[in-house]
């Protein structure tokens, strides 16, 4: 863990979304230096699903050695932002650091995303960040060492992220990935330590895109097990970051192709074959008409090889080998994960996010297949 140096003593940090998760972790890190923390967040009353309120966060911050000012702030409401900034200046005499942490996310395709959800994401992630920065800037300019820290996924310019849209464990990850996902994640402490490192640098350190682990390694941190929820457990890859090899295309490909060669003569018996047999029994012309896509599965493992699901021709078909028509979508994964996905034990979105599923081809059709899985899940 990165030790505190006391450099933020007496500094005032205005942190959006600081009632829980990463925002609160950054607040607690700064509080240990004796910093003043403005908790600008929505949750004033206990939430049925999410932990903490602005008041419980304030108690933790003051117990850690800081001073806290809890403010009810929905960053979609400009007047609430302005009011909180004015209270901060009146209480602490100014603002030295702004941390834009509040965010909204929806991991859905264009057709599946409601307009109100798009409005929420734009209002919080873009407009809210702009309004909070605008309100704080006059006071930041008066600070001796001002900083604005914007938290976001890494800036990966590869086309796949514009075509479709190491994880940190927060309440949002529980909602997206379900129970058990936390074992594959790191604590919010790693973001807090990286933020602390940035915010204690001189104001000349600006205009940088920073990856937490890279920065901390440069600062001399060697033991990253301390940040793991479950030390020793494999971590979920950050799906916005490239691995040393191109994970979005190459992972599992050699295993799958080797399996295809080895099993070219006859279909292997087992859970995958049984799953395809059951899928074949559920196909109908209406399903084909509504989908119009051919899916090819390159599976590795015990039942490795090439399998297909044709939802474009006649009444549809499924089985072992190359599809009867050119594939619109090619999915690569292990045979075990394939069975889990088609029986409802593994969400396709999480399989893709965690690197268990690689997709090439028509992503819109891949999303269609994901929706169709809900029909199969009940019967497989």
TrEMBL record:
Domain SCP2: 283-373
Coiled coil (residue ranges): none
PANTHER family, per database record: HYDROXYSTEROID DEHYDROGENASE-LIKE PROTEIN 2
Annotated spans, Disordered: 250-269
SUPFAM superfamilies per UniProt: NAD(P)-binding Rossmann-fold domains (SSF51735), SCP-like (SSF55718)
Highest rank taxon of the organism: Eukaryota
Location(s) in or outside the cell: Mitochondrion; Peroxisome
A GO molecular-function descriptor: oxidoreductase activity
Alphabetical keyword list: Mitochondrion, NADP, Oxidoreductase, Peroxisome
Family listed: Belongs to the short-chain dehydrogenases/reductases (SDR) family.
Family annotation (InterPro entries): HSDL2, NAD(P)-bd_dom_sf, SCP2_sterol-bd_dom, SCP2_sterol-bd_dom_sf, SDR_fam
Name by which UniProt lists this protein: Hydroxysteroid dehydrogenase-like protein 2
Record carries keyword Oxidoreductase: yes
Name of the gene encoding the protein in the UniProt record: HSDL2
High-level lineage: Eukaryota, Metazoa, Chordata, Craniata, Vertebrata
Matching Gene3D superfamilies: NAD(P)-binding Rossmann-like Domain (3.40.50.720), SCP2 sterol-binding domain (3.30.1050.10)
């Amino acid at each position: 863990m990165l030790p505190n140096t006391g450099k933020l003593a007496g500094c005032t940090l205005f942190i959006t979304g600081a009632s829980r998760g990463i925002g609160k972790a950054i607040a607690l890190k700064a509080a240990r230096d004796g910093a003043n923390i403005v908790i600008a967040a929505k949750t004033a009353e206990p939430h049925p699903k999410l932990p903490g309120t602005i008041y419980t966060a304030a108690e933790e911050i003051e117990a850690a050695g800081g001073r806290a000012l809890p403010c009810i702030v929905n960053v979609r409401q400009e007047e609430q932002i302005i009011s909180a900034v004015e209270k901060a200046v009146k209480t602490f005499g100014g603002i030295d650091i702004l941390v834009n942490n509040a965010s909204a996310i929806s991991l859905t395709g264009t057709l599946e995303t409601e307009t109100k959800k798009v409005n929420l994401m734009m209002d919080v992630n873009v407009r809210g960040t702009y309004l909070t920065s605008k309100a704080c800037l006059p006071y930041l300019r008066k600070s001796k060492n001002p900083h604005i820290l914007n938290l976001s996924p890494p800036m990966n310019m590869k086309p796949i992220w514009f075509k479709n849209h190491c994880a940190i464990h927060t309440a949002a990850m529980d909602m997206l990935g379900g129970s058990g996902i936390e074992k594959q994640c790191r604590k919010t402490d790693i973001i807090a330590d990286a933020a602390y490192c940035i915010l204690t640098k001189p104001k000349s350190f600006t205009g940088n895109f920073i990856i937490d682990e890279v920065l901390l390694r440069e600062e001399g941190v060697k033991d990253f097990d301390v940040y793991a929820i479950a030390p020793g457990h494999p971590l979920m890859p950050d799906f916005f970051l490239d691995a040393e090899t191109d994970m979005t295309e190459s992972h599992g490909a050699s295993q799958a192709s080797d399996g295809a060669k080895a099993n070219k003569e006859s279909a292997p018996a087992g859970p995958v074959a049984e799953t395809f047999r059951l899928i074949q029994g559920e196909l109908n012309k209406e399903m084909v008409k509504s989908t119009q896509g051919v899916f090819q599965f390159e599976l590795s493992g015990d039942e490795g090889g090439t399998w297909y699901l044709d939802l474009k021709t006649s009444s549809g078909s499924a089985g072992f080998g190359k599809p009867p028509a050119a594939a619109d979508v090619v999915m690569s994964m292990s045979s075990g994960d394939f069975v889990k996905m088609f029986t409802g034990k593994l969400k396709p979105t999480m399989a893709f996010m965690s690197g268990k599923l690689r997709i090439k081809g028509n992503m819109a059709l891949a999303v269609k297949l994901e929706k169709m899985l809900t029909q199969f899940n009940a019967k497989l």
